Every structure is written in C-alpha cells, then in structure tokens.
Amino acid sequence: MDTPAAGGPHGRAAVFDVDGSLVDTNHLHVVTWWEAFRQAGHRVSTHAIHRAIGLASGDLVAHLLGGERAREEADAVSAAHKALYGQYLERLAPMPHAGRLLRRLAGDGWKVVLATSAGGHELSALRRAIDADDAIAGTASADDVSEGKPAAEPVERALELVGVAAEHAVFVGDTVWDMRAGRNAGVRCVGLLCGGIPRADLEDAGADSVFDDPAHLLASLTRDPAG
Question: What GO molecular functions are on record for this protein (predicted)?
C-alpha cells in the first residue's frame, strides 16, 4: 500500500469503509434491496442494485428509481430493506484478515477510523463481525453526517474525529462511491475488489492502488510503517 508522508504531530489516519470492505455484506444488501423494491412493485435488476451499493439508503433509492417516485417511496423501501437485512445481523462474516489488518495498522501508528453509511444496531453488528474494537480510534456513521458518499463529508468527519489532515490520510473502500468520496475529501484512495466492483471502475473513480481484499492489503504492508 502506498502511504502518505509520516504526518507531523497528529500522525496518520487509515479511514475504512465497512460494508463490502471489512465485512462480507454487499450481496446480502443486493438481495434484500431487490426484495424491498419488489414488495413496493418495482422491478430493479440485481446488477443495477449492486452498482448502487455504497450509497446511503435514500440516495440509493433515488439513484435507482429517480424523480418523484423516489421521494415518495424512499422511506418505505428503505424500511423494508432494513427489516429484511436485519435477519442477517447476527450472522455477518468479516472479510479475510479484516481485524488483523486494522490491528497491524494501529500497531504501526496509524489512527484507524471507520466511515460507514450504517448506524445503530447495524453498525454494532458490523463491529462485532470485525472484532477489532481495540484498534478502532473512531467511527463516522450515518448518524454523524448530513450527506453520504460520494460526498466528502463521511471521510472529512472521520478525519476530524482523530485530528488528522487529509494529506496524511488514506481511505480504503470497495465501491466507486467510496473512491469518489475519498477524492472529494482530498485523501489518497485504496480500492478493494472483495465488494465485487471491477478494478478498472475503482481506478477510474480515483483509486491510487487496488487489492483483492484485506488479507491481500495486509500482506502488502512493509515492516516500515512509513511505507
């Protein structure tokens, strides 16, 4: 992983997306969104839904339905998705070596922060799956921001929590929305393929480097924390 400079008095931050990056949830979200749309009378392809994963719930509905229908139905469709997805919360599985990666970075002096669209019970379930709370310095959740990715706010809020400037930070995510959010926030971006988005799409959206999953990223780290 290419890293920023050592970072001065406030150190360096590694900001992580969670769904699809640290926890294997993207396809669960696809299926439950598909069913939520179906229950509302909409036929939306799983491919289109997959490409929209990473957007906040209201933005995802607007992206896929568009126009007035989205404004009228966003709350109901989002509530249906939340209920359907909720059945999986106690069974979520981490990506390979996700917790080990966070602990390695924290041990090397990075401030590890999460930036996620999840909140409440869902966020708690995700953190249980990662099982690395000792390495996480803070979390910017859906409850903490007014705009979700690809807006810069989730990443900027994460950096505010640990007092690190954008030039000394890296954002790791698995969707084009993550890469755009990182670029909008002025940080370097690392893409992960484990969420199912092609390498070329992540690079086009701003990824400086791309790895298969957290295990691959962990294996790429050098012993020198400066990179």
Answer: hydrolase activity
Cα gap 54→36, rounded to integer Å: 17
| CB-count exposure of residue 19 (10 Å: 0-12, 13-18, 19+) | buried
| CA 132 to the chain's CA centroid | 16
User: Over the stretch 169-209, which tens digit does the pLDDT of each residue have?
Assistant: 999 999 999 999 999 999 999 999 999 999 999 999 999 99
**Residues 3 and 170: beta-carbon distance below 8 Å:** yes
CB within 8 A of 116, min separation 6: which ones?
17, 18, 19, 123, 126, 139, 140, 141, 142, 154
Both structure tokens of 66: 């568009």
CB 174 within 8 A of CB 197: yes
Coil, helix or strand at residue 66: coil
> The sheet that has 136-140: what strands, in order across it?
136-140, 110-115, 12-16, 169-173, 188-192, 209-211
